[in-house]
Amino acid sequence: MTKKIMIVDDDELILIALKELLKPEGYEVHTTSSGFDALERLKRENFDLLLLDLIMPSMDGIELCRKIREQDELKHVPIIFLTAKSQEEDRAMGLAAGADFFLSKPISPEKLLKMLAVAIS
Amino acid sequence: MKSPGLLKRSSFPRKLTIRKKRLVAPRTKELEESKERYRSLSRFLKSILDSATEYAIIAVDYRGMITEFNRGAENIFGWRKDEVVGKENINITLLPGDLTRGVQAGISRRIMTEGLCELEMERLRKDGEAFPAHSTVTAIRDPAGKVIGFVDIVRDVTQRQLLVRQRNVLEKQLRETKEFLENIMESSVDGIVTTDLRGKITYLNRAMAEMLEYTKPELVGEHISSVYAGGITEARTIMAALYAQSRVENYHMQVTCKQGLNLHILTSAYLLRNEEGELIGTAGIFKNVTEQKRLEMKLKETQSYLIESAKMRALGELVAGVAHELNNPLMASQTILHVILKNLHDGCPNRDHIEIIRKCNDRIEKIVNHLREFSRQTEINMRELDINVPIENALLITGQQLLNHNITIHKNLNADLPRILGDANQLEQVFLNLISNARDAMDEVSEIRELTISSSYRYEDYETFVVVSVKDTGVGIPEANLDKVLEPFFTTKPVTKGTGLGLSLCFGIVEAHHGRIKIMSKRAEGTEVLIYIPVMIGRDK
Predict the structure, then answer these.
(1) Is the ipTM of this complex over 0.90?
(2) pTM > 0.95
(3) What is the pLDDT of residues B113-129, one digit of tens each?
(4) CB contact under 8 A, A84 and B324
């Protein structure tokens, strides 16, 4: 069965690149630049994995992550932060908000694919 | 005064009248002459009596009744002669208190034993005013030697006493002023020196002697230039300025102590003149500003260090921002490249070109990672540690590599160092950077390649530091570059070899440990980098 991934990032280039990377690997990739939009879509559809940016306008990744985890049916969806931030406290904050992994950009495509496979299984 | 002629009268022959007459005539003449002599003597005495207007001469009979009272007595006591002679007792010139004490009896006694009595006492004028008087009293005796009266010669010494008193007051004031001034000079913390016109020291205060570590006698009489670091030239410069402006203020100079140490001094000097305005010498005030100077230097050093670290922080933030902004496009680019490379069919001629782009990306990524490392301000994990541990770790990693470069390692680690509070990983990073810098510096020299790493501890500026020295025998840093090596991106290495961030990174880490970096270098001799990390307070080991 095809795994559905939602990527939330305010950087258009990242969305395009990740889509190009993940689609050939057999993932169904959905993208959005808005945390609100992401929440709306999570209510209607099921996703196997969420890939979130940390710094975003209007609603940042941390807030989005908390809001997702507040909903019972979304409690166990794997969440990965993929962010340009790399400091310890960012990592700690991300994990405290309920994420499963915290990855720093730039990350090699091979490593990212490996992490996704681990998280989704 | 008895005439021998008179004494012979009893032996005159009674019968020989003519002979008598003959005899009497010269006698009479003699008598007349003698009378005349008495008269003139009496006039002489009287004129003395009356002309002695400054002296009161009073004669009294044995009861004290006044028998003579000269002009001087009238002046001094205010009585007229006719008011007192034969009418008043000498007691009217004595104070009632002295009378009741029986002062006259004492005077009489002294005259009897000593022949005369000289004394200073208060006397009384007619108007009742008492005045200080000097008095000489002698006895008048009849031919048989019996005392029939006294002569009292009195002088009004009011004026003299006044003068004496004034002189005493002036002397006291002078003494007090002198003591006062000496007290001030001796208690001054600044050195005070006076010299004569030739420059020989005539006085120096305690502070000056202490400052120069000499005793006062050692310096008095010496030429002032003997304590000037600039010697006679300095002394001439000051004198020239003094003659030109009559004073010199806050002139900066150095003096040399007995032990040979030079002190920084601010001098103010003046010309000294006597009452007539003639030059008699110079006076100088010497303010020891050595400590101030030292603090100033220290402050300047600290200031430049603070500026440096503020610059570093600002740069750190800038670099972090840049790195962060580069991350997204870099990642997108790397990801797309990955996809393209994967999709390329075998033998596609563009594969090599795209590989080049990937290599470029890899280089960018490396630089960005280095930038991030440089800008990382947190994540310091402070633990109590022995600084030898990160040194050993760094040497462990680089040891083989150094040997490959024909570098001999000398290790002088003090095994008994006080502990510091630090991050072992970050300190290891510092030593790795320093070692790799040393290696690069020695790659360019052929002869001796020696890396010496030492650790020790020392007390400096009221604090104990653990000091690590990393010393090489490399090419050295040109003096012009010495103050730039800590700046980020400053490098003289080829593009692929360094980003110019190594020492900046070290600076940031050492700074986070409240430490210091000192770099000493000599062209063609090598470079020594000293890392100072403060020892944990309250624990020596």
Answers:
(1) no
(2) no
(3) 888 889 889 999 999 99
(4) yes
Taking alpha carbons only, the member of B419, B318, B337, B453 closest to residue B375 is B318
- Residue A53 and residue A6: Cα distance in Å, rounded? 11
Please judge whether B338 and A109 are an interchain contact, meaning their C-beta atoms are less than 8 angstroms apart.
yes
| Full DSSP string of B247-298 | EEEEEEEEEE-TTS-EEEEEEEEEEEE-TT--EEEEEEEEEE-HHHHHHHHH
User: Which of A86, A107, A108 to mutate to probe the B interface, most B CBs <10 Å?
Assistant: A86
Count Cα atoms within 13 angstroms, Cβ side, for B324: 16
Structural tokens at position B180 = 């006062």
Tens of pLDDT, residues B207-221 = 999 998 998 899 899
* Cβ-contact B30, B7 below 8 angstroms: no
Of A14, A88, A110, the CB nearest to B332: A14
Nearest alpha carbon to residue B279 among B185, B198, B368: B198
Q: How big is chain B by its Cα radius of gyration, in Å?
A: 55
- CA dist., res. B277 & res. B167, Å (int): 25
Contact A84 B342 (CB under 8 A): no
Residues of chain B with pLDDT under 70: 1-16, 373-379, 495-498, 537-541
